[in-house]
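Database export, one record per block. Field names are fixed; values are copied verbatim from the stored entry.
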Amino acid sequence: MRRIWYLYLLVLILFSSCNEEKKELTIGDWWAKMDVSPSEVLPFNFKLSKTDEAEYSIEMYNSDEVITVDEIEVKNDSIRIQMPVFEGYIVGTFTENEIKGDFIKESLDRVVPFSAVYGKRDRFKIHAPAQINISGVWETYFDVNTEDEYPAKGIFAQNGNTVRGTFRTKTGDYRYLDGVVDGDTLKLSTFDGTHVFMFKAQATDSTLLGYFYSGNHSVEKFIAKRNDAFELPDANTLTFLKEGYDHFDFSFPDITGNTMSLSDARFKDKVVLVQIMGTWCPNCLDETKFYVDFLKKNPDLDIEFVALAFEYAKTQEKALEGIARLKKRVGVEYPILLAQYGTSNKQKANEKLPMLNHVLSYPTTIYIDKKGEVQKIHTGFNGPATGEKYEEFKKEFNETINQLSQEEIEAK
């Protein structure tokens, strides 16, 4: 009798669990935050929806940027949100109107606490009307009073309390920053799937004094002053061939294991652009999307692109997975070679490319003419968040390609 009763209870439990109502997240607007320090949080907004296949999908917002996240797994009350292209993911538990967990980047052993609540609300809560307007150009220095101090150019537009813009550096830009001036306090943030960037500063009409939080692993003090005439060094002068070298070359494997070098037949008598990059790098992603779009619009152009990936993934297998993921998600048809894994250290990268004075930035693009001679090296990438600078780059890029292509025609 006891055994029958036990079996009955077991069947009852199994039947109840099978008929347990599946947990669902509320569709609509959500507000999320990441803890970048014990006292500061990085906020952002997203919208949760369901596809025709009843799968969850997210749109994350940073100023004019919309990032679609379509790899979301739920099981019972657990959730995993895989970022597009990048390796980072959010994992945690959820109820109908709340998610709690962490944003994780395994290769860097970084974990940032994350939470989100259902409901439409402003990115930053505003406590007071803006006392100043920061629209304009700001000469900025990060990591001030340290040996790592570096310059940047702040470019902002303010409307009421709302601020949008970015910081440009010698190596690229900090992409779409979205925020407010709350009284006399500037607050800006972005989360694009890998960057966890938060800026907070005390502002006057002519100065900014604040801190830049990169995830919860780095805090940099920064200062800025208004300077409409301020400009960063020319991106075409920062990286060059060292004395004693008259050519650029490489020899690295593609994702199938086949070694490729600049002396291969596919590059002979062609204009070649060599992109130094990493699949973890948002500026590289912006540049890669630009190149993919350019090639689609110019299918008959006799030109070759090849990327050299310097990956911080801990294993070769993970690094190759990252490259394959980027190629699939962005539609990259040109080869991406694995130049390095286990670190993205620029000094290590320079050892792989000893003909360069340094690898200053991911990305860097080397323009090589039909004769195999380096005509130009462009350091960094000014993406769409930089506005006019991005338009200037596109114009310059087209002019350079046209010039190199014309030289190719004249040489035939």
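Remark 1: The CA atoms of residues 272 and 304 lie 5 Å apart.
Remark 2: The chain is about 20% helix and 40% strand.
End of record.
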